[in-house]
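Hi all, posting the design record for the shared folder.

TITLE: backbone redesign
STEP: 1 of 1
STRUCTURE INPUT:
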């Protein structure tokens, strides 16, 4: 539509008015850059020339190559090198999300391109284009580039389902693994085996969206109703405690949340209308949230501190407590500073414990589904994930050595370090310890529930183990990969009708009965299915040869 509108303006009979961009003399800028480089200093530059939320790099601007070739042409002994640096985000639009900075191999400035640059004219432009291609290739080695968002989601799903030798990967290792998956998918995407796995992964992701859960939550659903009910109540209690801790900081920062949300979305709509490269303008939203918060947060804390001083100095009779009387003996400046520090402390406490609370909220839905729907669907989804994970691992182990000769000997942990991090902030450590105690309590509760259920089981679980095993030697042809045994099976209309008609009191009664052990035999039968799932895991255990992955982590 924009092209048609532009064509109409350019071809109208009366002509079209246009603006001329003023000439910008950049000689002073390049001269300053050359002076810095000749002094042995560094220059940081973003060669794309702007921010965006696409899954691939934009075409690079030529400024970086002009700087490098021009400085080397003026000083052949400079020894200039370009270091490609990649910024890889896990959740770019999420506050305090993780990011990995990758540094690639330094790029030398080729002498033949410097000579062509000195010639000027077309030779100079060709030298800049050739060197720009070299720089772009270097950046692609340290960034994640896919043609569209759907491909990136597919690659990330495959990376999560892949089973490396080392199951606990650092952030840098996860990024490197994703980058290698992208390269492998680009090379083998047309193979029938890859296309078949792609369809199965799309089916699996469809089921995850249907249930409203994430991939890492599937294993959480492999529990019986009794254990799910106990964990549900346990986590709700912890959620209430964390909510109380985070409530004061959330209240004092509520104006920041509202103002930043409204203004950032307005700016994003304007940016989308004026840009041809942005997809959802998430970068604009994040940028404006930070800019507004940098101004609004200090202003709010100043207002809160002034109000605290006024309250202490003019406290009414009903507020004349011992604490207020003791604080009133302090100077006005001291009260102001203590109020500012208290507001900052409350805000950061709310931020840290709020993040922990969000994780608990996300973990409640799988437990709720297990309680209401039962393990008949959740166990099927978990088995489908395990089969899909095994097949992806097998395919990667088969095709990986064709791209990476060091397939089974690359020691990523030696190259990237041990990935250990330290928490210097006391509040952050407290939140982690708080979360660990919750996990320890959950484990103790799991053992107690399982032991109680085991002591009450009176009949053998032969019925649950009569299912056709999924493991064992395959009778298919050597080069023919088996298809998925699990198609998309959403809950039946009867199950959804039951889920929609259940009342809060009935649900509370079900949870209470599951926790106290007064529930119906459904808990016993669901535990039998859980035992069948355990047997499935044992029969699907991979051999050491199958566990060799894209990396050999030490």
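Okay, here is what came back for every position:
SEQUENCE:
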């Amino acid at each position: 539509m924009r092209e048609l509108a532009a064509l109409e303006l350019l071809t109208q009979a009366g002509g079209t008015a246009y603006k001329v961009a003023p000439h910008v003399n950049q000689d002073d800028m390049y001269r300053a850059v050359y002076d810095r480089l000749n002094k042995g200093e560094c220059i940081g530059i973003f060669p794309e020339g702007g921010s965006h939320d696409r899954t691939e790099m934009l075409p690079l601007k030529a400024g970086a190559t002009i700087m490098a070739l021009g400085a080397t042409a003026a000083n052949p002994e400079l020894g200039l090198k370009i270091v490609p640096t990649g910024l890889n985000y896990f959740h770019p639009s999420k506050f305090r999300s993780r990011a990995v900075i990758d540094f690639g191999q330094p790029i030398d400035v080729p002498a033949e391109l410097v000579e062509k640059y000195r010639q000027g004219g077309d030779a100079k432009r060709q030298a800049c284009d050739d060197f720009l291609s070299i720089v772009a290739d270097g950046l692609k080695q340290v960034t994640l580039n896919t043609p569209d968002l759907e491909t990136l989601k597919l690659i990330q799903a495959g990376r999560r389902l892949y089973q490396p030798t080392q199951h606990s990967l650092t952030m840098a290792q996860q990024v490197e693994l994703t980058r290698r998956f992208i390269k492998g998918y680009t090379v083998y995407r047309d193979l029938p085996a890859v296309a078949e796995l792609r369809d199965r992964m799309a089916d699996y992701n469809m089921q995850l969206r249907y249930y409203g859960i994430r991939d890492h939550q599937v294993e959480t659903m492999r529990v019986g109703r009794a254990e799910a009910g106990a964990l549900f109540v346990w986590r709700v209690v912890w959620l209430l405690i964390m909510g109380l801790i985070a409530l004061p900081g959330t209240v004092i920062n509520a104006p920041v949340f509202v103002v930043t949300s409204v203004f950032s979305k307005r700016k994003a709509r304007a940016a989308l209308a004026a840009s041809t490269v942005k997809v959802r303008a998430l970068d604009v939203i994040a940028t404006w949230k930070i800019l507004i918060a940098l101004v609004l947060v200090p202003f709010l804390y100043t207002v809160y501190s002034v109000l605290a001083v006024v309250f202490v100095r003019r406290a009414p009779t009903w507020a004349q407590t011992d604490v207020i009387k003791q604080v009133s003996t302090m100077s006005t400046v001291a009260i102001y500073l203590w109020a500012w520090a208290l507001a900052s402390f409350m805000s950061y406490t709310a931020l840290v414990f709020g993040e922990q609370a969000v994780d608990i909220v996300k973990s409640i839905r799988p437990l709720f589904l297990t309680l209401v729907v039962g393990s008949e669907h959740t166990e099927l989804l978990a088995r489908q994930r395990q089969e899909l994970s095994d097949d992806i691992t097998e395919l990667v182990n088969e095709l990986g050595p064709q791209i990476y000769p060091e397939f089974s000997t690359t020691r990523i942990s030696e190259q990237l370090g041990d990935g250990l991090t330290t928490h210097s902030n006391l509040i952050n450590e407290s939140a982690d310890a708080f979360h660990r105690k919750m996990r320890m309590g959950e484990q103790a509760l799991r053992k107690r529930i399982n032991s109680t259920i085991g002591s009450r089981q009176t009949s053998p679980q032969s019925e649950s183990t009569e299912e056709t095993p999924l493991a064992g030697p395959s009778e298919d042809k050597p080069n023919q990969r088996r298809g998925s045994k699990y198609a998309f099976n959403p809950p039946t209309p009867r199950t959804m009708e039951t889920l929609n008609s259940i009342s809060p009191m009935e649900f509370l009664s079900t949870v209470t009965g599951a926790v106290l052990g007064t529930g119906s035999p459904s808990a016993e039968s669901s535990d039998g299915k859980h035992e069948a799932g355990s047997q499935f895991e044992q029969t699907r255990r991979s051999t050491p040869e199958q566990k060799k992955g894209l990396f050999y982590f030490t």
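COMMENT: The longest strand covers residues 85-89.
Let me know if anyone wants the other runs.
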